[in-house]
Amino acid sequence: MLIASSWKDFEVLYAGDGEKYERWGDITLRRPDPQAVWPVIKDGRECVMGDLKEPSATYNRSKEGGGSWDRHTKFPANWNISYDSLGKKLTFGIELTSFKHTGLFPEQAVNWDFCGKLIEDAKAKGKENISILNLFAYTGAATIASSAHGADEVVHVDASKGMIAKAKDNVRLSGIEGNYIRFIADDCRKFVEREIRRGRHYDGIIMDPPSYGRGPKGELWKLEDSFYDLIKFTANLLSDDPLFFIASSYATGITASASGQIMELALREHKGKIKADEIGLPISKMGIALPCGQVARWTAD
Question: What is the pLDDT of residues 212-232, one digit of tens each?
């Protein structure tokens, strides 16, 4: 498992009974996590989340679907946390959303560092005009990491204008608003189709598609049914001298091994190496790690 263990402003304190107890800066949150299938262990004994110190806020699911946050202490609606990515300080705005998330997936730090090092190494070897495409880019953490580590151009694509606005805020918070980043509000597949017609190519591609979504005509789709086609189709945008292709997945029906095999088949025409693994977060008070999805990585060497 690839574990995002370099965080200072974030940690999972406990996890179990289908929930996790986290620290985001000075604020603690308790929210559901389907991967926390074991009991909570505190001080060498089993307990329940209710036995722990009351968090700043708790997310409660509704029987009708969805859920809401209960605040137990006063804290700002928005606050910031930072991450040191191989010497680059990345800063992100955090807030409680109605769908239990906070605007950031901390486990993805393993991928920010990974692509950042490849970009820096390529620049050190004299590679110029490095262009990175970030699809399903959400609030822009991978975009910011790529740009901060020296990418000459990053193209950030997400269907949600609201997420793009938050990504722009994170770019400003990270102090790289002068870097060349293009923000595109569009369906990712439609954008890729147009880029292929335009003859565009990228030295690095990052994608983190949702487990479920809607196509350009509103049709429902599951990632399990579309992951191979999505990777193979997007691979047409790789340059003649590419650095990487990173594809993450949170779909329970796609294992790390399966994602690696999918990438192996989809990128068969491109010479390189493929590694696939689970990604996770350390649970600081329990000495174990919380699984948080999987990633397949293709690199040129």
Answer: 666 556 656 677 778 899 999
Categorize the per-residue pLDDT at 253 as very low, low, confident or very high, splitting at 50, 70 and 90: confident
What's the CA gap between 104 and 164, in Å, rounded? 13
CA distance 276 to 256: 6
CA–CA separation, 208 vs 138, rounded Å?
9
Distance separating alpha carbons of residues 119 and 152, to the nearest angstrom = 10
Total domain count, the chain: 2
Parent domain of 22 = 2-76
For residues 202 and 284, membership in a common domain is answered with yes
CB burial class (10 A; 0-12, 13-18, 19+) of residue 221? middle
Per residue in 250-277, is it b (16+ CB within 10 Å) or e — as a string?
bbeebebebbbebbeebbeeeebebebb
Tokens of 164: 């793009």
